[in-house]
Amino acid sequence: MPDVAIKVEGLSKRYRIGQYVGGGAYQYRALRDVLTDVMYAPFHRLRARSKQRAVASNPTAMSHQPSANFIWALKDVSFEVKQGEIVGIIGRNGAGKSTLLKVLSRITEPTKGRAMIKGRLGSLLEVGTGFHPELTGRENIYLSGAILGMTKKEIDRKFDEIVDFSGIEKFLDTPVKRYSSGMWVRLGFAVAAHLEPEILLVDEVLAVGDAVFQKKCLGKMGDVSKEGRTVLFISHSMPAITRLCQRTILLDEGRILQDGPSHQVASVYLQSDVGITAARGWPDRSKAPGNDIVRLRAVRIRAEDGQITEAVDIRRAVGIEIEYEVLKPGHVLLPNYHFFNEQGVYLFVAGDHDPAWRQRPRPIGCYVSTAWIPGNFLSEGTLIVGVAISTVSPVIVHFYERDAVAFRIVDSFDGDSARGDYAGSIPGVIRPLLRWTTEFKDVVRQQRIVQKSNGGGE
Amino acid sequence: MRDLKQVNRKVRENQTLANAEELRKAEAVPTIIIEPTRRWLSLKLRDIWQYRELLYFLTWRDVKVRYKQTVIGFLWAIIQPLLKMVVFSIIFGGLAKMDSEGFPYPIFLYAGLLPWQFFASAVSRSGESVVGSANLIKKVYFPRLIIPIASVGACLVDFAISFIILIVLMFYYSIIPTLSTFMVLPLVLATIFTALGVGMFISALNVAYRDFRYVLPFLVQIWMFLTPVIYSTGIIPENWRWLILLNPMAGIVDAYRSAILGKSFEWGSLGISIGIAVIVFLFGLIYFRKTERYFADIV
Questions:
Q1: Inter-chain residue contact A115 with B37, CB threshold 8 Å
Q2: Other C-beta atoms within 10 Å of B221: how many?
Q3: Do both B1 and B124 map to the same domain?
Q4: Any residues with CB less than 8 A from the CB of A379 and at least 6 apart, and which?
Q5: Three-state SS for A244?
Q6: Contacts of B68 in chain A (CB under 8 A)
Q7: Tens digit of pLDDT for each residue in A359-376?
Q8: pTM above threshold 0.90
Q9: Which of A270, A337, A440, B243 keeps 20 to 30 A from A83, CA to CA?
Q10: CA A4, CA A6: separation in Å to the nearest integer?
Q11: CA distance A1 to A83
């Protein structure tokens, strides 16, 4: 029976929005507070006003919203992690994942509850923590090591190993400000990787942007788990979670929504994700986007088999369907879709160029147009679709519904997508499956000689 | 038969050894409890002892970085106070003809300037330290108190270096060190604690209210004029002297002067100063401890 490595009981963390959290008696505000207040002011005022109204009309309303200035980043979270377990933590942005890591790594204190951690805790939150640009690589190994919690003796012992692992021997006595970013990451990771904690916290989100580091990170996680260490792994990537963790915890608005086998929790997550709707309709005509010429009725995402779907296999085509009603005859209408990824990058625009309707004024009636995005084209992740209907000459935008629907492209790990057998994260907004050819040319002469002398022939 | 027994015993021995090893390992595994601080006062000073090596590394970093890209390096620690002494001596000693209790003005001044410089730079540096380490605070746990302490530590190194000038000056003016010169050591301790108290308070305050960044240099400047650095306590009217004693550095700087120049100590005022210094230190420590748990959230 393995020991408990992490035990969390009723852990809660409350943040106050836009105000000093310390509860000091100092009433005047600093520049910084004023600035954050300016940012939040519209919300504050809005909220305060609606609250006043609510209170005026219904005196009990206050008790439902005890304090609009507070948010619970974590609310009554309890779980246990056994020694040697790898547990994934998923949830939307703001679900409390990072706050949980911060509390567990003692960076910030919980408001309520308690957590017990057995063993040394290390976190791969960022590489090169505490590096000082003016100091040399050698000096920074000691500094960063000490900051991460190693003793000088430990660093002395592991120094050569760290240098070997990082591969920067030549630049050991060069200030790290002269390092390339790659060298910086390598050295930082080398130090962190030699901390050898009993419990490792990994936040993939913070590591995003450096594919090399991510790959190393995942590799290190694999190693660590083989050594019987405990890992908490925060990720947005369902494939990585299901591959690496047996068990996953799904957080939503600071609470645990699900805790169980990874594939199960991952599917719950993909289905429950509130921000993502694969189908939206506007049954009430007066509220639907549009004008007196054309009005939007519905937008849907369909898989190849015609099912409405939120998650699409990267290898399969996906159809974006728009249903609309033409109220006035005589207009040439062009439905068009606008695609964005999660980072808000404008990926592309697709306009209807069906020759049947291209220059033909549309009679009154209801229409359904569908555009098919081929499989093996987009990269994995969430796509947000805006839909519009316009007329080209003269240019009139009848309506443009931003963020109308969204869907998720999920990469398969069957080896026949563009990913192949690689498990790490792949950058880029498209991921086409290209035709690759490799020809075997004759073995070069020198190699043949070597092979012969080795005795291993054809 | 006997061989077998021996082997058996050896195996058993090895086993117990292995068990002991495991036990020791199990004991060495630290268990951390994370919960909100409930006690009104929890100073967790043992934590700092555990992280003493980090304290050493941070101090060492501060010292190293400060003189890293300078041409003359550590000489700055000598040139700065030396120039200050020369300028002040010309203005206040030469032109304004300040009373220096019968001692040559340069050494009279330097005996006060030396501890004051240490105090002023320690307060300024530690006051900025926590905000300056924001990226560390948001990424890793360690006792936050280490940050201002390391800043004071780095200033202590400068202080030790600028002591060389004092020794040269003492030679030059043939001031012979006496037993009372050793009083400097406890006085250094008192200065450290005062600077740390103020530094901890301001560094914590600085996290929540960045305005203190602009107030701090001003505050230090005014504080110097409220401390007998360029003048002697003697020029303050008798019935107002108690007021200046509210400033702990007044009594301490005065005592440095007594120790270095070999004049008699004003034990009463030194006592009051040290008493206030202790209060300042405790106040800074408690304030820091009470606010540090929010540092990562607001820094």
A1: no
A2: 10
A3: no
A4: A314, A341, A409, A426, A428, A429, A430, A431
A5: helix
A6: 134-135, 175
A7: 889 999 999 999 999 999
A8: no
A9: A270
A10: 6
A11: 10
